Amino acid sequence: MRVLGINALFHDPAAALVVDGTIVAAAEEERFSRRKHGKRPVPFSAWETPDLAAAWCLRQAGVCAEDLDAIAYSYDPALHLSPEEAGVHDPFDHLRLTYAQQAPGFLAEGVPGLDPDKVRFVPHHVAHAASAALAAPWGGSCAVLVLDGRGERHSHLAGVYRDGVLEVLASQQLPHSLGLLYEDVTAHLGFLRSSDEFKVMALASYGKPRHAEALRSLVHATGDGGFVTAGADFGALAKPRHPDEEWTAEHADLAASVQLVTEEVLLDLARWLRETTGETRLAMAGGVALNCVANSRLAAGSGFAELWVQPAAGDAGTALGGALELSWRGGEPTAPFTGADLGSGWSDAEIEAVLQTARVAYRRSDDVAEEVAQCLAEDGVVAWYQGRSEFGPRALGHRSLLAHPGRAENLERLNDVKGREQFRPVAPMVRLDRAREVFSCGPVPSPYMLFVHDVAAQWRDRIPAVVHVDGTARIQSVDPATEPLVAAMLTGFERRTGLPIVVNTSLNTAGRPMVDSPRDALECFGSGPVDLLAIGPFVVHRRWAHEGLARE
Ligand SMILES: [Fe+2]
């Protein structure tokens, strides 16, 4: 059975393909269109479908659109609640309903050969839930918790999966929404709504949650699996910040307050679900599940023994979830999720052809992991392009920018390369067998950078570039069994420096989507102060350009 999943209506358009229960491809549209997040999440763009990502998924699997058995669209217009009924201010929302109803036609137009009669509407939160629970690395039953800005009429789903069948136990109807609350504070603090929520999470570490008590009366769990969020007046707590304005302690305090109250509500919801279901495993999805600070609190305090967050937890993941849901309904259980590297990959010959076309000096490395480790040990910045690109917002050692964690100035250096605010941390990757020695208070393994950990006191001065102001780090643990090349690079770096850790941030420059193709990698290398591009088995050294050396 061949099922194409499509996420198009709100954020981060994406496509995914599930064939005979195996996830064979998943990618966001932005990686191909080179427009960050694919489009702005406004009603006027709701008609746009991820045609490039869908076409790539089909090419990747050698499947024709005519051969698809079903197409999952992760929104069900039959469940749509008008803004008036939902109690939200969204004057052009009717466009979303119209465009969702017409989505089969838009898809047939965008993906030649696709049969519009095979499009099935999957409720938005069911698609989120499936993206977590049906992809989770464990078999059998589990609880599932979804929290985002909004779906058709809800912002939340709590339930349990047994034998691939979802039982919904609670759903919070709009206007109450932790995702919209967080989006509102993001906009109030001068950042881009539906994009920069992780900046608020980073800023929260600089503040004191002195408004938490005031917020708790407005934002709290209700004891029945739901919650309320109505009526918070952020203007009364902190002046709105203009995007060009410097942030102040007042802004950080508001961020800290909203973050703390969000964590508390999540904890209450998860505990309710634990008690109600008796399950020991919790799968999570929805944009709120990308809040790695909250995730660590849930891992520690929810009562669940295991917590798994699907790495593309935002709306992009509903493309995958929709496809998994229809696949299960068709009688084909899913093979467990083995990694986020579900995007495009390129053969050595294809990469070399791009290098030759660009006429850059390059050579095939004798040992790319060792060569990169040497460059990092000498405090070089490395663009690391290996294997298939990641599905979801995190670079996980396939499209990464790497640096030495022992030099505090590398935080500023990388933030400059990427045009990021200096208050934002960069994250460490660490070999799995060394993770517990350095990082605590968070789950290990942590292969998808979805939890924060405390950095051991004796290590903080040794890896200052990756220690956030509150003494935490958002780690990626690297298992040599699944990521042998990244692990070899980390081993080579440790042999040279004594540090089993490397700075890892996404391979892109300001305002651009993550690098996807070899050509994108060359553009990124050419436009930033990067010392070495390690692309497949090939290396391109910046110093060659300086020295005027011609290679091959
Ligand atoms: Fe969503």
What are the main properties of this structure?
single chain, alpha/beta, Nucleotidyltransferase, domain 5, DHBP synthase, eight-stranded mixed beta sheet, five-stranded mixed beta sheet, globular, binds fe (ii) ion
In short:
The chain is an alpha/beta fold. It is 35% helix and 18% strand.
Specify the CATH homologous superfamily of the largest domain: Carbamoyltransferase, C-terminal domain
The whole-angstrom Rg is 23 Å
CATH fold-level name of the largest domain: DHBP synthase
Low-confidence stretches: none
- Beta-strand content bin: 15-25%
The averaged pLDDT comes out at 94
Overall structural domain count: 3
What is the helical fraction, as a range of percent? 25-40%
**Strands side by side in the biggest sheet:** 13-23-22-14-15-21-16-20
Tell the overall outline.
globular
Kindly describe this structure.
This protein has 552 residues and is of the alpha/beta class. The strands form five sheets. The protein has an eight-stranded mixed sheet with strand order 13-23-22-14-15-21-16-20, sandwiched between helices. The longest helix is centred in the middle third of the chain and has 29 residues, at 249-277. Helix content is 35%, strand content 18%. Fe (ii) ion binds next to helix 6.
